[in-house]
Amino acid sequence: MGRVPRYALCIVSIMCSSSAELLNVFILQRHGNRAPNTEVLTTCPNVAGTTVDDIKKAFKADPGQLTPFGEKLMEETGKFFHNHYFGGDHPKMSLPVDLDHKDRGRYFTFGATTTTRHHESVRLVSEQLFPGAAKPPGIVVDDAPDDFLACPPAVCVAANHMDASAWMASNGKSVYSKRKPCVREIEKICGRNFTDSDMDATASNPHPPFQDVVDLLKFRAQSGLPLPSHTDSVLDQARQIQYQAIQQRLFGTDEQVVYWMGEVPQRLLETFSSTEKHFGVYVTSREKLYAAEEFFGFEFNCGGILPTGAIYPGTALIFELHRREDGGKDVQVGYYYPPGHPTGDPSHKGAMKWLTLPGCGRRMCDFDTFSALIRQRSKVHGKDFRQICSEKEALSMAAAQAGGSAISMTVAQAGGSMAVAQAGGSMLFVPLPLAGALFAVFAVAVSFMISSSCRSRRRDYIPLGDA
Question: What 3-state class would DSSP assign to 316?
């Protein structure tokens, strides 16, 4: 996979050519606003409180679940999709049946993982798409192992642990450095210094404590809750650090971009290859949409107070398949983000923006060109995401079977050399023997440092049109 420069021409207009027929819509959407995870009860007691009941009282929701504001947000997003695609006297998408017809489920799919907030989000969207129907079509919850919408795909959990651990032990030390005034101020606001042990190493995608705390502050602002004093002076920079860390930790290499996308490219092409009209909404977490940024070579620009590239809850990445008058097909890619009225920040309006993807040359990308680009980018050195993750997992298992117990590996730079040590407070526990896996850990850590140091130069990127 050759990575592409992250640029795109954003077109605010939402009108398509009148001569094109809309055949298919595939929407990959982030869930709505949620209550924070329970980890913040330990890492930020001054803001989150110390008990689960404190979170419930503040957010009117269980930890990690949709807040009332998040529920309303997803309902409003569903209304937008209804009005945009099926509203008015001349709807953009016409189906063989009315939206309240008993056979409408044949033309719609609403997908989510088994995560409750994902399932509830897509349910709320689906209900608003059918305002006149007694009951919307059923929601498809992908069965485990989930390699489509899960973050990361189920087959790549071990690979993500290995890659994220290496980044946290190398570049992560500087990104989250306590020498940064912003990090120190956030710790002061929370009333606690963050440590390596604050990370849940058993999670499929472990969050560094700084990320969870910034989420806590953002979710409070987005839900209209008061923020602690002095927060406004550092929150913008904290958002930047959080987004930078997610991009580097999870998408620092081509292999990571491919395995975080999982089955999404394959499902997209399969859906667009169907001869029947279809409309699908698939709810997931923000990481899947961030992976799509890198995969397709664009940047979200939601305006307001967000860093370029970052997204609001409820943001939807939209793929449309159109049929031209000459019988050919085009793909149009864009995104929609809902309006918001956060505490302490300017309000922002919702907007739909269309993209011109690198390698396409125009906003309406020829379907054959689009398909070729996806297939080319779905592999690295001929290996798809399953092969990449299988090899990483095999490396970890082979090292463990060589006689090593689960030890915590911390890679530190000292005088230009790399030192590997056993330490009680490391970010993740990686099962590696001290002798047999030393080189593997060293190599992974060095690859992260090299990819991050060269990231701004994009030395490994090639335009999709030249791939």
Answer: strand
